[in-house]
Specification:
Blueprint: H1 2-13, E1 21-23, E2 29-31, E3 39-41, H2 44-51, E4 58-62, E5 76-78, H3 85-90, E6 95-99, H4 105-113, E7 118-121, H5 126-140, H6 143-164, E8 170-175, H7 189-196, E9 199-200, H8 215-221, E10 225-228, H9 245-248, E11 252-254, H10 258-261, H11 267-283
Parallel strand pairs: 3-4, 3-6, 4-5, 6-7, 8-9, 8-10, 10-11
Antiparallel strand pairs: 1-2
Helix pairs in contact: 5-6, 6-11
Length: 284
């Protein structure tokens, strides 16, 4: 009886962190002892994920985070290539959300050594964005709000897939860098977004997310549309080949807006606009 009583007492006294445990996009187990109240987001899409559920709990961000506008006043503790671990520790976060990259490897070790839970976020589709929202929402104690927003994103993604599933393919070259010339494959969220819209590209099946591109390959592919993640001026070089259908019909697009290039809650907004733009070209 004594043993049973002691076991029951220990069970009751056990921390509740087990119910706030998830796996991040790197496959790691992430746990918090209570709903996270002080969150640092070290990538723009991560900031938007947390802000969609509990913007008031964000206490620090990276230098590129600019949405929602309220994050502008927050401490900037990282940029694309470096993370200020000392400033992060000084802000006493109980959760840090990061983008998976080589830059996070060493800082991640230090943060974990200090007992700070770190969630690695790298969604590559609206469905994965929804999954990330649910898991981050769980760590924030915002399951209901996260589930509702995630369900909307999944439904809108499903509607896009159904709408364009049988549409005639549109040949698209997506340019993400001018020199060196680079594109994206379907391993990337933008490549997958174009696939959802019924677009096909010359580097869809590349083994890396951002393959180096070749002018000769693009010319041979004869894209109906040229799309740049930068300003339209970055596509100016293709005017030298007026036989390209995209150039001949002036079908060039810029998707430099954040809603297209961040895998956060607004990605589905960008996809709907992108699909509509491609569909208009398809109709011609």
């Amino acid at each position: 009886m004594m043993r049973r009583g002691l076991a029951a007492l220990l069970l009751c006294a056990a921390p509740a962190w087990a119910v706030l445990t998830v796996r991040d996009d790197a496959g790691r187990s992430v746990a918090v002892v209570a709903p996270a109240q002080r969150v640092i987001a070290l990538a723009p899409h991560a900031t938007e994920l947390v802000a969609a559920l509990a913007p008031e709990r964000i206490v620090g961000v990276d230098s590129a985070s600019n949405y929602p506008p309220t994050v502008a006043a927050l401490p900037k503790v990282a940029d694309f290539s470096s993370i200020n671990v000392e400033r992060i520790l000084a802000l006493r976060p109980d959760l840090v959300v990061v983008w998976e990259s080589s830059a996070i490897s060493q800082p991640l070790t230090v943060l974990l050594r200090h007992g700070i839970p770190v969630f690695v976020s790298k969604p590559q589709s609206p469905v994965e964005v929804a999954g990330g929202l649910r898991r981050i929402g769980h760590l924030l104690g915002q399951d209901k709000a996260a589930d509702a927003l995630a369900a909307q994103i999944v439904q809108r993604d499903r509607a896009l897939r159904q709408r364009y599933a049988g549409a005639p393919p549109v040949r698209v070259f997506l340019q993400v860098n001018e020199k060196p010339l680079m594109s994206l494959s379907r391993k990337s969220f933008l490549g997958q977004a174009l696939n959802t819209c019924g677009a096909v590209g010359p580097y869809d099946t590349a083994m890396v997310e951002a393959p180096l591109a070749s002018t000769e390959v693009v010319l041979g592919f004869a894209p109906d549309v040229l799309i740049s993640t930068g300003p339209l001026s970055t596509l100016q070089q293709w005017q030298a080949w007026p036989a390209i259908p995209a150039v001949a019909h002036k079908q060039v697009l810029s998707i430099a807006d954040d809603i297209y290039v961040r895998p956060g809650p607004r990605l589905i907004d960008g996809m709907e606009k992108l699909c509509a733009a491609i569909d208009r070209i398809r109709a011609h």
